[in-house]
């Protein structure tokens, strides 16, 4: 069996009397693309927030790279190699694309306010150059060289989504969490984003956990798919197995099993 990079065990989360997640467990294989799907309000973003550290679950444990991270803060998880994008864009709108992406390298900087003033006499200059080289590699990979000096807030929605992905990649993560990376995009932009996700997985070796509503994309690029409904796990497995499950058809697609039979008989 392939090594697991992420293990989520018996996670439960509640806001007052409202249960967002109930006893959810799954594992993600290193080097895979793992998608989480389900109806609106199923608990998908809540799960991503538990994994990234924005929410602390009421019960259960989360293990990343064989380390228990359940109680770690988001920045500590970033230090361990976990990146994140958001459903609602979280860019610095007044900063350039390049500066936004450089923010993603900040936690990797070894120089500080003491060594900074000695920029030329210490290794600070070499360190900055190394970070900038990697950022330029990410910029080239995502084909955004032409907007590198543009102010992020002036860009189209699709390009801003790509810049946010670049910033997450700049962390040089082992695992990247993508919250609806294709929401609000047209068909061409979705095709481009799907290609970038595949390539960052294959070329950069980054494991991907993704929430996405476009079922065509999910089925095409995912190695495993998990379905949540009302905060509970319905099924987790290969894309074809998941889509063939009658519980998924009822909960997610609104298709009843007997309706399937009627359709087949009519054809």
Task: Please explain how this structure is put together.
The protein has 267 residues and is α/β, with parallel strands linked by helices. It folds into two domains: 1-81 and 173-267, Rossmann fold (3-Layer(aba) Sandwich), CATH 3.40.50.300; 93-172, no CATH class. Helix content is 38%, strand content 23%. The chain has helices at residues 44-52, 74-80, 97-103, 124-141, 157-170, 187-202, 215-221, 239-244, 246-253, 257-266, and strands at 4-15, 18-29, 33-37, 59-64, 67-68, 82-84, 175-179, 207-211, 224-229, 232-237. Strand 9 and strand 10 (232-237) form a beta hairpin. Helix 3 runs parallel beside helix 5 (157-170). The N and C termini lie far apart (41 Å).
What's the quick description here?
It comes from Litorilituus sediminis. The chain has 267 residues and is an alpha/beta fold.
Structural topology:
Blueprint: E1 4-15, E2 18-29, E3 33-37, H1 44-52, E4 59-64, E5 67-68, H2 74-80, E6 82-84, H3 97-103, H4 124-141, H5 157-170, E7 175-179, H6 187-202, E8 207-211, H7 215-221, E9 224-229, E10 232-237, H8 239-244, H9 246-253, H10 257-266
Parallel strand pairs: 3-8, 3-9, 6-7, 7-8
Antiparallel strand pairs: 1-2, 1-4, 4-5, 9-10
């Amino acid at each position: 069996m392939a090594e697991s990079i992420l293990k989520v065990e018996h996670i439960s989360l509640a806001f007052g009397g409202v249960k967002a997640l109930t006893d959810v467990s799954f594992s993600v294989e290193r080097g895979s693309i793992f998608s989480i799907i389900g109806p609106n309000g199923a608990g998908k973003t809540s799960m991503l927030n538990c994994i990234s550290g924005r929410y602390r679950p009421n019960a259960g444990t989360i293990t990343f790279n064989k380390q228990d991270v359940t109680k770690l803060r988001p920045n500590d998880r970033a230090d361990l190699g976990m990146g994140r994008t958001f459903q609602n864009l979280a860019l610095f709108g007044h900063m350039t694309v390049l500066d936004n992406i450089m923010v993603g390298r900040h936690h990797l900087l070894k120089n500080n306010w003491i060594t900074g003033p000695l920029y030329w006499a210490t290794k600070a200059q070499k360190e900055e150059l190394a970070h900038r080289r990697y950022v330029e590699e990410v910029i080239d990979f995502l084909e955004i060289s032409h907007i590198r000096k543009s102010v992020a807030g002036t860009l189209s929605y699709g390009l801003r989504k790509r810049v946010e992905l670049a910033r997450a990649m700049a962390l040089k993560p082992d695992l990247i969490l993508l919250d609806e990376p294709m929401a609000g995009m047209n068909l061409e932009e979705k095709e481009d984003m799907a290609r970038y996700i595949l390539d960052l997985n294959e070329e950069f070796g980054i494991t991907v956990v993704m929430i996405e509503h476009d079922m065509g994309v999910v089925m095409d690029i995912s190695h495993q798919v998990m379905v949540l409904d009302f905060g509970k796990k319905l099924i987790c497995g290969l894309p074809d197995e998941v889509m063939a499950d009658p519980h998924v058809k009822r909960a997610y697609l609104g298709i009843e099993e007997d309706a399937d039979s009627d359709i087949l008989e009519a054809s």
